[in-house]
Design brief:
By secondary structure, the chain is α/β, with parallel strands linked by helices. It contains 10 helices and 15 strands.
């Protein structure tokens, strides 16, 4: 079967893949690699000593052995010479350490797709240029590429809105939003320490310190601007509105007592000559019934909403839901799968840090149930 020039051909033989972590993303990545006909799972890394030597299939909750034992030995996995690593380890609380880890992997000649740190979603405007050049140089030395993506930051607010703008005659403003109930989102460090949910309203959570939102989500605004050929004013604009919980609720990550922080609405805005042109918004609740005047999903517990104002006006609401779980479970799956399905394109890409704008069309080729492709 032939394909257009914007789709990477299927590899002649399965690409050898290592999954880096066995947690909320890693366990789904193991299952995703195992299920993909163009990929072969050859190794799994874990940071947990108790998981060392355990079968990857059991760690992924597959109820069957895959014949691959998890290891805490980084060099053992690099020595396997995999074509790519799917890196799903926690990076939010160790940004610069993780950048060093990822840089070392591509210097060692291993391509990497990673869910973080999200600061690497787009190279310009956040990290010092010399640090980005070090990543590119490591890639050139190893002949390997690094691609950071996922669902948000990732597909829901880079590729999807940019594809929508291909229908536009005039673009006045692009707004990308995540509107979600995080009560079933299991990331205690993120929920309690970074967001400050369940903490007193005067708690100094990291995300609300000046400049942190721009560091974390600014790359989303910048990749959209890059895709549209727009030069933004500096710095980006940050807006935050936090609200106390109207009642006590229990979430899977943290208990939220009445009066402690329960909901937040924040924006990172890119302006041109002082006029807002690109907005990233998050509306995050720990109680689905809280803040009824804030935006809510049209259906389900969470959505991504893309709104393009101009001629014509465009609006898409994108939702996902797990077959055996809620939107937070499927959020981990779609994050993992966006990376997994991008592996052939990343392996074929130029060395160094690559963004969604550097890759061809990524699809779920080979994943349609009960079919094969010649």
């Amino acid at each position: 079967m032939s394909h257009g020039p914007f789709v990477v051909p299927r590899p002649e033989k399965p690409l050898r893949v290592v999954v880096w972590s066995t947690g909320t993303i890693g366990r789904h990545a193991i299952a995703g690699v195992d299920a993909h006909p163009d990929l072969e799972l050859v190794g799994v890394w874990t940071s947990t000593a108790e998981k060392h030597g355990q079968d990857a299939g059991r760690l992924a909750g597959l109820d069957r052995d895959l014949g691959i034992k998890a290891t805490t030995d980084r060099d053992e996995l690099v020595a396997l010479r995999p074509d790519c690593i799917v890196h799903g380890a926690m990076t939010d609380d160790r940004v610069f350490e993780s950048i060093a880890d990822l840089t070392a992997l591509i210097r060692d000649g291993v391509n990497v797709v990673s869910s973080g740190p999200v600061i690497l979603l787009h190279p310009d405007g956040t990290l010092p240029a010399e640090m980005i050049e070090q990543i590119h140089e490591a890639g050139r030395q190893g002949g390997a590429s690094l691609h950071v993506n996922g669902i948000d930051p990732g597909f829901a607010n880079d590729v999807l809105p940019l594809v929508m703008t291909s229908l536009s005659q005039r673009i006045d403003h692009v707004k990308v939003s995540e509107i979600a109930d995080y009560s079933t989102y299991y990331q205690p460090v993120v929920m309690r320490d970074l967001f400050g949910f369940g903490q007193p309203m005067d708690f100094k959570a990291l995300l609300w310190e000046p400049g942190i939102l721009t560091t974390a989500w600014g790359p989303v605004v910048r990749v959209i601007a890059d895709g549209l050929g727009v030069t933004l004013d500096e710095p980006l604009v940050e807006e935050v509105e936090r609200r106390p919980a109207p009642r006590s609720v229990e979430t899977v990550s943290v208990d939220v007592a009445e009066g402690t922080m329960g909901s937040v609405r924040f924006r990172v805005i890119g302006t041109v000559d002082g006029v807002p042109r690109i907005t990233l918004e998050h509306v995050t609740r720990t109680d689905a019934e809280a803040e009824p005047t804030w935006p809510t999903p049209n259906e389900g517990d969470g959505c991504y909403r893309i709104e393009v104002t101009g001629e014509p006006c465009l609006k898409v609401e994108f939702t996902h839901h797990g077959e055996h779980g809620d939107h937070n479970v499927s959020g981990m799956i779609v994050t993992a799968q966006r990376l997994i399905n991008a592996i052939p394109a990343v392996v074929a890409a130029k060395p160094g840090l690559v963004t969604p704008l550097d890759l061809p069309l990524v699809t779920g080729r080979g994943l349609v149930t009960g079919t094969t492709e010649g």
